[in-house]
Protein 1
Amino acid sequence: MRLCIIRMIVFLGMLPALTFAQGDNNDSLPGDMRKNEAFRKVLRTLIPTQGVIQNAGNMGLVSCGVGWDYGRRSQWETHLLLGYVPKHKSKNARFTITLKENFIPWNITLPKKWNVEPLECGMYVNAIFGKEFWNHQPNRYPNNYYWFSTMFRTNIFVGQRITKQVEWHAMKRLKAVTAFYEISSCDLYIIDFVNNKNVGLMDMLGLSLGLKFQFF
């Protein structure tokens, strides 16, 4: 688990280098690679096109990571996020990792390089790391005492976004900044809402705010 976190941190640290590697200057590549256009296209798809920072959403107080957009209208996005949960009443702070898929069916173009995306939706799976969290029920509990994992959660969400196209000479590769909000719920909250009449709609929903930075 710690190794996954270390790899994520190293990957984020390498992001600036990977970003500049996507430029037109391919002199650092061997001659054979420069001639292999197929290889270069594959390499480009692996380089993140977005940076994301988000709070709450069952991911932690704050989470940040990278993303990729694709599709004819870039209507699909995949985000990989590392989150931080302060220790609060527990003994130690925790880290989470989230794999998130977004779908943006349409957008509205406004004057002065503004765009509104009136609907985004999707789902994500996240994991929290710590000895007290597990995927399979420990032997200290009776059989089938816990039918769910305390380590992994599946979430669904809907939200809206507003985007500003930017021309910032200090960061030429930054193309746009997006502010968004999401209303989400996880599998356990939804099941509890269905089975328990004392749980209200607002009890199972959470609000998350975030920023997305488009680089390419």
Protein 2
Amino acid sequence: MMKKYSKYLGMALLSFGVTIMAAGFMLGWTAHNWVTISCLLLIVVGVVVHVAMMKRESRY
């Protein structure tokens, strides 16, 4: 069951990072660097995981 959903892990991390970042800006958490850095980290890791999964599943 985990294998079925593991290919969506990158997109989930990316979406979660973007959602938290948008909520942080709406709620005024811009003075806290830990929110921005953690969102940026989630987005970067999500992109890397998504690209790695797509490359692994591809024939090229």
Protein 3
Amino acid sequence: MIMRIYESSFTTYFGVTSPNQSWGFDKIRKKTRVLVEDFVIGSSSEFDFNDLVFDVEFETASKAKITIQAVGTTLPIEAAGKEAHEIMGYSTNMLINTSGFTSVNPVSFIVEGDFGGKAINIPVRVKHGDYWVNSIAEIGTPASKIAVPTDFVWSKERDCIGRTYPAFYDWVSGGEVFYNDTYENFYNLQYKINDEVYCTYKVEYGAPIPQEIPVREGYAFLGWGDTPETMPAHDVMVTGSFKQIVFEVKDVKYEITGEETVTIKSGNCKGNVDLATNVVINGQNYIVTAIAENAFKGNTQIASVSIPAGIKSIGDNAFSGCVALFNIDIGKDVVSIGSKAFANVGTQAADRTRTENPFTVNCYAESVPQTAADSFEDSPIATGSLLVNDNIVDAYKTTSPWSGFGKIQGFHEVAGINDITIDSPNSRIYDMQGDRLDNLQKGVNIIKAESGSVKKIIVK
């Protein structure tokens, strides 16, 4: 009966309510002011929405601080199970902070429950005779409570909210704004990495936390510390850290890829370059297992390169554009060579007059590496020489792009048995597996002269 009278009077006075009107509770705020109407209908002036005024401030989705600001009814009225007059220290026959005759400090208390961080879920009820009636704010029905920002000034006694705030009429009939929604609802979200500020956001309370994946050359990001899914009602600082993974040793940069492995990231090398099989970083020994993409791209100072055993892969464009590179040794463990890894290589070798075949590749791999078709694109392989293990010469001759070399031979075909003579002190010595030797050893030795020529020596 009470609700029917209320709804009829409310609707008649303010007009038909919009089916989309959510009475302000659709706003997600850290702090919300709730205005309650007690259903006592004497005249239209009774729609003052000051019968209970309280602020809600969520600490968590299930914990909130309730602050009673005003009580403008003489009926028992509760917020979150607490009778408002009693909380303020008065009996129910008092009007508190609505009539102009009382000035009482607000009173706060903490409540916990399944609120979901929404003010609409804070229960409010008023007692009519023997019955408690719940205050509602449902779409499409006249509301007995509405949500506003905490700076909203409530109406005084018998001062209709529609007269105090004329925009209320439009709001009830489906308008978007009834009050100036400039409340403080944003908080600082700061990301810090290794004690330095990375970025700062202003994030609305309840909004999803923006995710950052920082990138810093030569470092690996180890992740963020505890990060909330949505913005809480306070400033947040999230910390993370980088770990250095790229180190320079003797003009070559290495990237740590495992507990004991590194990849050659780049190098500022020139002349005859012997890449390392292992490297010591911060006192720990690492095995070199790969050459990264673009590692030596465009280096015009490299004349020859020796890729040692242990390295398994050569990345895309690793030596692309190394126009002075006329001699390449590929170690026995290489199993893959990327796109354009040796593209436009040795194109200036034609200016050299040291050998008949200035562009030479010695591949010690135990089987033909998986090689991109354009690995030697625009390189002078048609006039170049490819030396490989004797038992897989035919495989190279029938596999692209290796088959494009002008001369493909096994190491034993290069020369006969020679006396133990070394033409130049800068010549390099290798065993049949492609491992670099400091001195001649018993058995077969491969001698690569500074000029790029190769011969075989057997030491008995």
Protein 4
Amino acid sequence: MKAIIISDEENVISKLDESLISNGFDTIIYRWLLKALDNIEEIRPDLVIVSANEYPRHWKTLTQFITSGIGGDKTKVFLLTLSSLGDDETEKARALGIKGFIPSVDEYGISILTDLLMETFPCLKKEEPVEKEPEAPKIVIDKTPYEFEDDEIPTVSALQENRPVIFDPNSASLIFVNPKTGKMITGSVESYENKTVHFNAENPEKTAMLVSGDVIETLTFELDGKVQNYTAEVMMNLDSLLLKLEEIHG
């Protein structure tokens, strides 16, 4: 069974990783939520644990993306809260598809995680412990696209030693033509990673009709002074647009 941990806190990663491995999961660690989002369809994990405190807005987008079936219909999502969400937020989280809440990564929190695993994955109770071969060093995926050349193959040490570059929203701008209205759309880029953009339209009502799967044929994206034209697919339209950029060749 495969589990994805999404966090940038060493203590959180260590405690969750240890618990999941001891319960029979192979783990993959992402420090960048958007990179995890981009790879879930290929990985098709059984479980995703995401830190609500570190990604207070994006965990909702991630959860809806997963529950839409993009990574398969078996993927479950647990939310690491570290602080109380409150009754209203907890109910909203359950409505989005969260299957369990982990209040901490101390002994109490890990015991809650273990109980959730047993309840959510009954097959774990039947498995006998198997002596494993020594594990290879874990690869922690925390580099940004800007740190690799297109033809560079990163080494394990490079992946583990380099920390992600903090994205500066002031370094990016985006403008596109709404394919359904022909109107020019402007706004602000909330985040960008691996050709995936979270975009807040200046006038959200002008993009409200866009849905997952719509293709934007005319889009201009500027990052750190470099301007490039793209097409883009709408992956999700909630509080903001989630766009997947594709370079125009030829």
